[in-house]
Design goal:
Structural class: alpha/beta
Radius of gyration: 20 Å
CATH superfamily of the largest domain: Zn peptidases
Largest sheet: 8 strands, mixed
Helix content: 25-40%
Order of helices and strands: HEHEEEEEHEHEEEEHEEEHEEHHHH
CATH topology of the largest domain: Aminopeptidase
Number of domains: 2
Number of helices: 10
Strand order of the largest sheet: 2-7-3-8-13-14-6-5
Strand content: 15-25%
CATH architecture of the largest domain: 3-Layer(aba) Sandwich
CATH class of the largest domain: Alpha Beta
Distance between the termini: 50 Å
């Protein structure tokens, strides 16, 4: 059994030497070499209908090794001046997959590359139309914070049915796992146009992408034990991947940009309106995604052709100077 603590010591921005060393040490003995996109893929069983996923990159701002501390079964970085995050997103998911493989749980296992910079690895698999995708009924990512979520919606659109979410909780015997429509974006979303149920499961990390990120080892142990004993025959597959099913929670809203009316009817919604709803209802998740894509506030305004972008940048520079003087 691999040590989650040892795995968490690796800081792995996409394309770095430390990322390659992590993959060579922890993934290649089990998966062999990656595909041309950097994804590690392993199939256990004869045409399994479940795919379990994680990703091997992190959002660290530098590569190398980091020191950790464990207090009351909670892991965090020892020095936040050296590490801007723990990297449990998605080291914990990789650890979970290795545990399941070691115990022979049938499935297609994929540790994707480049999730944190736009889900490039999973997007490439779907674009290449890998043959094994079409045998799947579910893609289950282990890349969600907290300890209660079976994600049903990503970026405001349904990717997983409530029925599947309930059956997943029952299959694991973990009633605390509930359907959660507040998902942002991870690799399973890339498969949602092909595969029926595409979800993301809470793995016990908190404050991801920040220097305060932690991993709850007690919950992780509970989850892994449940996964190894799960009755996968209890899963139900309901969602039609051909049906676009947006989540609209429209109300009259007030913000810095003024007050606007939202909408209740799905047929009347334009794609622009739907995106506006996602931004307004999930601003933190959208900001995290844009940051992962490499945007700054200034570059985003430039990309959107906002005329006062330079003035905004000047204001932010002055604000930073005033703050730290």
């Amino acid at each position: 059994m691999h040590s989650i603590i040892e795995m968490l010591r690796y800081k792995r921005p996409e394309g770095t030497q430390t990322q390659r060393e992590f993959c060579e040490r922890f993934l290649e003995p089990t998966f062999g070499k990656p595909d041309i996109h950097g994804n590690y893929i392993l199939q256990i069983g004869n045409k399994p209908n479940l795919c379990f996923t994680a990703h091997h990159d992190t959002v660290h701002n530098s590569e190398g090794m980091q020191q950790l501390i464990v207090i009351n079964d909670v892991v965090s970085v020892a020095d936040s001046r050296v590490s801007n995050c723990l990297g449990a997103d998605c080291t914990t998911g990789v650890y979970i997959l290795l545990c399941m493989i070691e115990h022979g749980i049938e499935g297609v296992y994929v540790v994707h590359a480049a999730e944190e910079v736009g889900c490039r690895g999973s997007g490439a698999i779907v674009f290449d139309d890998a043959e094994w995708i079409h045998q799947l009924d579910a893609v289950i990512s282990f890349d969600r914070y907290g300890d209660k979520s079976v994600i049903t919606h990503q970026m405001g659109y349904r990717t997983c049915s409530d029925e599947f979410a309930k059956s997943f909780s029952e299959a694991l015997g973990l009633p605390q796992l509930k359907a959660d429509d507040g998902g942002s974006y991870t690799d399973s979303n890339e498969y949602a146009g092909i595969v029926s149920e595409c979800t993301n499961i809470s793995v016990g990390y908190y404050n991801q992408h920040t220097k305060n990120e932690t991993q709850d080892l007690e919950y992780l142990d509970l989850l892994v034990t449940a996964l190894l004993a799960a009755d996968w025959s209890k899963l139900v597959f309901v969602r039609d991947p051909d049906v676009v099913d947006p989540l609209y929670t429209y109300n009259r809203k007030s913000s810095y940009y003024g007050t606007f009316d939202s909408y209740s009817g799905r047929e009347s919604m334009s794609e622009k309106d739907a995106l506006l709803d996602v931004v307004c209802n999930y601003p933190e998740e959208v900001a995290e995604l844009l940051e992962a894509y490499g945007f700054t506030s200034y570059s985003l305004m430039e990309e959107c052709h906002i005329e006062d972008a330079s003035q905004y940048a000047s204001y932010m520079d002055n604000y930073a100077l005033r703050r730290y003087m």
